[in-house]
Design goal:
This protein has helices at about 185-195, 205-220, 225-235, 245-255, 285-295, and strands spanning about 20-30, 35-40, 55-60, 65-70, 80-90, 100-105, 120, 125-130, 135, 140, 145-150, 155, 165-170. By secondary structure, the chain is α+β, with helices and mostly antiparallel strands. It folds into two domains: about 20-170, Sandwich (Jelly Rolls); about 185-255, no CATH class.
Length: about 300
């Protein structure tokens, strides 16, 4: 599932500072994740004249930072969270420290003072905004980072201030929407993952195996059944065929079920039986009986 650091609204909805500024948040991750978006809370002042540019840095011991991603916003909704997708998702790993930030050419940032005196962990537990003054392997890192003037790494500190720069991440091996596939999965792999989620297929099964699994779930075919045995299995389920019967004997079995054919009947004998002839009485015999009756008189 997608995860991000902040959900609250800033106390200061607009700084009224019209100078160009970069603001950022220093953070780490608790598991390998794919960072898909920059996210931030926009000032209540309109950004129409000059849209912000998002940046993501990997922090380094020399303080310069490695730029991992950059993307300009095409539009911004004021007084609300906004997000923009990186052109390519970025893999983030534990043990590395990052800064997510945006550059506002016309200024007007938001803030909550003393909000980062301690670590802030995201709702999903994948992200941690560092407490200001955290000691790390690359030195002491601060939060409440900003930089006036030109676009660049926010390297000045307003101690413990939250400027509400954020990211959106998903755990490696998950789809942001379905939570079942890694970023490199193809359509087939997604289908298999969905099948695994339903408990009906292993990761190596192909379309044919998935079809077999579906038939097994219905109780009508074995793992190695082909299309013909599956048909027989369906017939057995209906009680009209044995496991070795062919299409022809299936037809006979159906006929026997209806009471119109014997086991050895072929297609030709399965016809309506002829009605037995009634034995006729001869005219001479009738005349003799009449004569005999007359004699008694």
């Amino acid at each position: 599932m997608a995860d991000s650091l902040f959900s609250a609204s800033p106390v200061v909805g607009d700084s009224a500072d019209g100078m160009s500024i970069n603001t950022g948040t220093t953070f780490r991750v608790t598991a390998s994740v794919s960072c898909t978006h920059h996210r931030f809370f926009a000032s209540t002042v309109s950004y129409v004249a000059s849209e912000p540019t998002a940046r993501l840095y990997e922090l380094t011991a020399d303080g310069t930072g490695n730029l991992l991603a950059e993307k300009a916003y095409a539009a911004v909704t004021t007084g609300a969270y906004n997000s923009v997708a990186w052109d390519t998702p970025v893999t983030l790993t534990p043990g590395t420290y990052y800064r997510t930030q945006h550059y506002a050419p016309n200024g007007h940032y938001v803030a909550t003072l003393n909000d980062l005196a301690s670590d802030v962990t995201s709702a999903g537990g994948l992200l941690v905004a560092l407490a200001d003054g955290t000691s790390t392997g690359i030195g002491t890192l601060h939060n409440g980072k900003f930089k006036y003037s030109a676009i660049g790494l926010a390297d000045s500190t307003s101690a413990q201030t939250n400027f509400f720069d954020d990211v959106i991440v998903v755990a490696t091996g998950q789809s942001a929407a379905l939570g079942i596939a890694s970023e490199t999965d193809t359509a087939i792999a997604l289908g298999r993952a969905k099948a695994r989620l339903l408990g009906v297929a292993s990761t190596a099964e192909a379309a044919l195996a998935l079809a077999r699994v579906k038939t097994r779930a219905v109780g009508i075919a074995a793992e190695v059944d082909t299309a013909l045995p599956i048909g027989r299995g369906k017939a057995r389920l209906l009680g009209i065929a044995s496991t070795t019967e062919t299409a022809l004997t299936l037809g006979r079995a159906k006929a026997k079920l209806l009471g119109i054919a014997t086991e050895t009947d072929t297609a030709l004998p399965i016809t309506a039986p002829s009605v037995p002839n009634v034995k006729a009485t001869s005219t001479a015999a009738v005349t003799a009986r009449r004569t005999s009756t007359s004699s008694v008189s």
